[in-house]
Each structure stands twice: as C-alpha cells, then as structure tokens.
Automatic annotation (TrEMBL), chain A:
Coiled coil regions in record: none
Protein's UniProt name: Extracellular solute-binding protein
Any one Pfam family match given in the protein's UniProt record, by short name: SBP_bac_8
Organism superkingdom: Bacteria
Keyword Ribosomal protein: no
Lineage: Bacteria, Bacillati, Bacillota, Clostridia, Lachnospirales
Signal peptide: 1-22
TrEMBL record, chain B:
Alphabetical UniProt keywords: Cell membrane, Membrane, Transmembrane, Transmembrane helix, Transport
Organism: Dorea hominis
Protein name as it appears in the record: Sugar ABC transporter permease
Keyword Zinc appears in the UniProt entry: no
Family: Belongs to the binding-protein-dependent transport system permease family.
PROSITE patterns: ABC_TM1
C-alpha cells in the first residue's frame, strides 16, 4: 500500500513539474520593458541565417520590448510549413514568398506595403513585388551565384581565371583537370548532390540559365509555354558537372549539398556551383582563395555574362494579423534595414552580430546597405563594375514545386545513364511539364 | 455498482468522446467539406463542387500510386504474415533464449519510420554503390527496398500477436491429434491454423491497412523517386497538396478517395477472415 502511494505521489510530482516547465518556457520571455503593443512572428526561409535572425529578434526585444518570434522552416520545407502555420490562429505576421509564382498563392494574405516606411527605404522598385499600385512583397536580400572556385587549386592545375572566358574554355580546363586528377589530387567539380534536400542547385539555379536566355531571346519575362530553346546548352553544362566530379554520376542521388561543401572546403575539388550565401560554410578555404565564375553554358555573347544576381526572398506582411501586430511587424522590418544593429547584422560578415557571431552577409536593396565584407559579394560587384551583364533570377517564374521536383528527378536519371532517351525525359519534364503545371495552376 | 455507473457514465465517457470529436470527427467532416473547395489555408475555402475529384481521378500519378500501393500491400501481406507466423512457431518451441529472440525481433518496431527509412537508405545505397547503382534510380530497387524495410519493421509485431494466439491453443487438442496419428503437417493445417484464425484476422487487417497508409518510410527511403514510380498513395496526396499552387483541394479530394478505398478493403478483408474463425 505504501509503495503504491509513493508511486502515485511520484507521478503527481512529475506531472506538475512538466506543467510548470511548460508554462515557464513561455512566460520567461514576457518581461517587457515598455507596454509594447503587438508582437512579431517571422517565418524565416533561410536556414543558414537562422542563428542571426534569432539573435536579432532578441536584440530588438531588449531594445523596444516588442516580442519577436522567429521560426525557421527546414530546407525545402518552407511552403509546407507556411501553409500549416497560416492556418493557425497565431499565424506568422511576417512571411516570405519566392516571387510572382509564390505570390499567386499567397496574395490574399498580403498586406499592401506601399505606404510603409520600409518600402520607402527601398532603392529601386525592381526589388518590390508590385501589382498595379499595390506592393505585396519587398525583396530584402540580393544574392548572386555562379561557379565558386578555389584559386589556389586552379593555379596548381596551371590555370587562372583569365583562361576561362566562355563555355569552351571552361570545358577545356575542366577536362584537363579530370585527365590529371590522380596526379593533382583533386577533381574539377564537387559532387552535384541530387538528394531531395539539395537538388535545388541544379533543378532551380542551373535551370535558370536556359530559361534566362530563352526569355532574353523572346523578349519576355514570364511564359505559360517554355520552348526549351537552350536545353542543349543545359545538357552540356550538366554533362560537364557530373562527368568531372568527385563521384560517379550514378551516385548523385545519394549525395547532398553538404557533401559538396565539405569536398570544396577540404580541397578535393576546384569548382563548386553555389552563391554568396554559402560564404559562411566555405570561409575556411580562405578569402584570398575564393573566386567566382559566371556559369557559362555556351551561348553566343556570353563573354559579357556576369553572375546570376537577384532575389527570391520577398518579405510579405500578413493582412489578417491584428492591427497592432501589423504595425509591430512593419516597425521591426524598418528597424532591421535602418538601425545600426540591424543593417550590420544583415550586411556584415565576420563578427557583425552583437554577440560577435558572423552576420548574414547579404546585400540589401535598401538605403542603409553597408559595404559587404563577404568576398563573394565583392566578386559579384566587380563583375558589374567591369560592365558584365548580371543574369536575372527567372526561376521565380517556374510554374510549381512539382515542376522542379520532376526536373530534378529526370536529371538524376539522366546522370546515371547519359543517353538521348534519358535526356528526352529531361526535356519533357522541362517543356511539357512547364505547360502542364502552368495550366494546372491557373 | 450498476447504479453508480448509470449515474456517473458521463465522467467516464465524455472526456474520451470529446477527444474523439475534436481529434477525429470534426477534422474528418471538415476534410470532406474541404475536398469540394478551393483553398490555401482551411480558413479561406470557397466551394467549387466536384472539380477537385475530376482532377484527382484524371491524375496519372495517382492511379499509378494506387496500383503500386496495391501490389505492395499484397506482397507485404503475404511475406509479413508467413514469416511472422513461422518465427512465432519457432519461438514457441522449447528452445533456449526464446525471450531474447522475441525481444530482438520486436525491437525494430520501436524505431520511428522516418529514421528507419534513412538508415535503410544508407544500408541499401552502401551496398548498391559497390555496383555503381543507387536506390533512387530504379523503381524495382525502390519497391523491394520498401518491402524489406516494412518486413523488417513489422514481422516482430505480428510475431507477438501470433505467439499470443499460439499459446492460447489448449495443448490437449494437439495431444489428442497425435494419439490419433496425425503428423506435424496435418496438425499445423488442421488444428493450429484454424485455431489461430482470430490472430490471423487481426494481423492481416493490420498489415493491409499499414501498407496502404504507409507514408514515413516511403518519404524517407525513396521519396517517390524515380519520377513518382515508387510513390505510394499517402505520399502522392502529400505531394499534391504541397507541390502545386492551388492544388490543396485536389489533395484533399484524393485523401477522401483514399479513405474510402482503405475502409472498403479493410471491411472486405475482415468479413473474409471472420468467416473462417472457429469456436473452441
């Protein structure tokens, strides 16, 4: 009998303890200094900037007393997370869309930002998602991607950036490195990981190039029916990536972007397709060793091609949030892009955060933009200074997630067996899939 | 006693009923309603009629997912039950260490599906990599990979159910049969299996519905690669819901169709095996 009682008492204690801790965790943050109205709930898209946003949110709360909660969706899970979060009674007040296609599904939720302070900070209307006079989204980070390379290794192989002025040069250098792979001790490309969490580098970013050139040629900026005019170029560059990499093209489905990053950092490969956001991960290579090449695909006139520069990160404010919350959110956004702490955290690289951690390293399209310490960003700026034309980000016009997934899966299949029949599958996913998905989304 | 139950029944029934209503009945009805709607989140639904169902049925990946799932369910139904039954028979003989074996066989069931999927993906790709092959490139590998994974996970659980059934058969029946001169084979098919029908009903029901509802393992092991060929119904619904702009309603319609199919198959199967159950 005694034992039973003891057990019951023990269980009761455990139960109350868990209740207390449950409450405690939510209460502890509430120590507001002023009687601030409203709160901010930011659903962040960028996992690589999660730590920084968390810190910035805390900083803002300490400064103003307004509660800011930042939740970051897992890589490739943003839409899923957003959909379920938006259905809740405590929905995000600040969320992101990736461009016109993303906006199409969330427009009903977007607050018109045209009268907001943060919109007035924007340096160019190119970075706003506008429809008529309403501003639904504001781009907050401009990024560039291309082929990042290791200067030291390239030199060791006997080349420099001056040797690479177009696709043919790139191909020659890459294939030469591959032929001397064993002697040099490194490969040309890092593994093009096609695991579902990582294939965005190719199904989205690399696919931007054939789309960009087609749009250029046809003088359009969106379409329901892509023709795939430059798909052969896409095939050439993809062949180059997969056949000169650290791993067999048949093993791509098992590799992730993290694998590629570590291969690049440990100097197993010279070239690595990624963007300015990857700087924090590859900084160990040393700033002096980092360079970036445009992704040449062999289109005429590509000597003047720069890096791919644009944004797929647009801030949107939830229209259905309470008035106080909307105001708090607008204030927070404005603070991020105007205050010293905010701009430093967003633009700075090493030690830019108040705690001494690395900053986000963005270029922000606002008046408060600071000169970047991210060497990759500076490379991108140098290209613009040299008069090279940046390639715009057209992948925000891709009709759906499904289109990207199907393309990715076709690319993986093709990589494992590089036949024309398998390339036809890529083509069909690209062209027919586009028409189908664009129609379905209507 | 009876009087107090009569008086206090709400205390016993109501909490569970409330939980059941909130956690199942209400979302279920709302889900059916939403399958006739166009919506982004559940709060902004607008009625569109049968359009979603038309789109769902005309989707080829959905019909493929259905046939893939059906084949998968049949294969795993046979494999899991035969193997689990065999293991159960072996572990009710008087061998040393049966308890350890039972524990070991049961253990995979304690691991979550997502983790299992990733672990097995590493194992399969590790082996296939030696031959320059990969799991996600070949639908056949994906299919058998899933079968192996599910067998590994569920045989232990079904084994426990079968062991309980075997132990409930009175020893006198087998003894009597032995005296009458029945051999081991006859005893298995004429006595043990008929006596085991209640366990078999439960196990077949569980394996069929589990196979149809399979999601986690499918997502983490193959995620439908290559090109939706190893995509099962639950994963197809998930992809529809999240993969396209404006396809939430279609995903919901697929989910309702999916529900009807699973219920129908479950009921047919229950009736079929129930008929064979015998009274002791």
């Amino acid at each position: 009998m005694n034992k039973k009682r003891l057990m019951a008492a023990g269980l009761a204690v455990i139960m109350t303890a868990s209740m207390v801790t449950g409450c405690g965790s939510s209460d502890s943050k509430k120590e507001s200094k002023t009687d601030a109205k409203g709160s901010v709930y930011y659903l962040n898209f960028k996992p690589e900037a999660d730590d920084q946003w968390q810190e910035l949110a805390k900083e803002y709360t300490d400064e103003t007393g307004v509660k800011v909660e930042v939740v970051t969706a897992a890589s490739n899970q943003y839409e899923t997370t957003l959909k379920s979060e938006m259905g809740k009674s405590k929905a995000p007040t600040l969320f992101q869309v990736n461009g016109p296609v993303g906006l199409a599904s969330w427009k009903k939720y977007c607050y018109d930002l045209s009268g907001s302070d943060v919109y007035k900070q924007l340096t160019s209307d190119d970075f706003a998602l506008k429809e008529n006079d309403a501003v639904y989204g504001i781009g907050y980070a401009i990024e560039s991607y291309g082929i990042i390379y290791n200067k030291k290794l390239l030199k060791k192989a006997g080349y420099s950036q001056d040797d690479i002025k177009g696709f043919d040069d790139l191909k020659k250098v890459v294939e030469d490195i591959t032929s001397r792979k064993d002697k040099l001790g490194f490969s040309a490309f890092t593994s093009a990981g096609m695991d579902g969490s990582s294939d965005w580098r190719f199904k989205t970013h690399l696919a931007n190039l054939p789309i960009y050139y087609e749009y250029q040629k046809d003088k359009i900026d969106n379409t329901d029916k892509i023709k795939g005019t430059y798909l052969d170029n896409y095939r050439n560059i993809w062949n180059l990536y997969i056949n000169n990499a650290t791993c067999s093209p048949k093993q791509l489905s098992t590799k992730t972007a993290d694998d590629a990053t570590s291969e690049f950092v440990t100097e197993q490969a010279v070239f690595y397709q990624n963007g300015t956001w990857a700087y924090a991960d590859i900084a160990d290579v040393g700033d002096e060793n980092l360079g970036m090449l445009p992704i040449y695909v062999g289109v005429k006139g590509e000597e003047n091609q720069g890096l791919c520069t644009g944004t797929e990160n647009y801030w949107c404010v939830n229209k259905n949030a309470s008035k106080d919350d909307i105001q708090a959110t607008l204030d927070f956004m404005n603070w991020c892009v105007t205050s010293k702490t905010g701009t430093k955290a967003m633009c700075g690289a090493a030690n830019a955060m108040p705690s001494g951690a690395d900053g986000m390293g963005f270029v922000i399209p606002f008046k408060g933009n600071l000169k970047s310490e991210n060497p990759l960003v500076n490379v991108a700026n140098d290209y613009v200074k040299e008069g090279k034309t940046p390639v715009s980000w057209n992948f925000s016009t891709m009709p759906s997630e499904q289109w990207k997934n199907d393309l990715g899966s076709a690319l993986t299949t093709y990589a494992s067996k590089q036949t024309d029949a398998n390339w036809a599958k890529v083509k069909s996913a690209f062209v027919d899939g586009w028409a189908k998905e664009a129609k379905a989304s209507k | 006693m009876e009087k107090s139950i009569k008086r206090y029944w709400p205390v016993f029934i109501l909490p569970t009923m409330a939980a059941f209503m909130i956690g199942f009945v209400v979302p279920f009805l709302e889900g059916i309603y939403l399958s006739f709607c166009d919506f982004t989140t559940i709060k902004d639904a607008s009625f569109v009629g049968l359009e979603n169902y038309a789109k769902a049925i005309s989707d080829k990946t959905f019909t493929h997912a259905f046939s893939f799932t059906t084949v998968f369910a049949i294969v795993t139904l046979v494999l899991i039950n035969v193997l689990a039954f065999a293991v159960a028979l072996a572990l009710t003989q008087k061998i040393k260490g049966t308890n350890i074996f039972r524990t070991v066989f049961f253990m995979p069931n304690l691991i979550g599906g997502i983790v299992l999927g990733y672990v097995w993906q590493l194992i399969f790709d590790g082996i296939l990599g030696k031959f320059d092959l990969a799991l996600k490139l070949n639908a056949k590998f994906g299919f058998w990979g899933l079968v192996i994974l599910i067998c590994w996970q569920q045989i232990g659980y079904m084994m426990i159910v079968y062991i309980a059934g075997l132990q409930a058969i009175p020893g006198s029946l087998n003894e009597a049969a032995m005296i009458d001169g029945a051999n081991a084979r006859q005893r298995l098919f004429k006595i043990t299996i008929p006596m085991m029908m209640p366990s078999i009903t439960i196990c077949t029901f569980l394996t069929i519905t589990n196979s149809f509802k399979l999601f986690d393992q499918n997502l983490s092991l193959t995620s439908g690669e290559p090109m939706h060929q190893t995509e099962m119904m639950a994963l197809n619904i998930y992809d529809t819901f999240y993969g396209h702009v404006g396809f939430e309603g279609v995903g919901q319609a697929k989910a309702v169709i999916f529900f009807i199919i699973v219920v129908a198959i479950g009921l047919i199967q229950l009736r079929a095996t129930r008929d064979k159950e015998v009274q002791q």
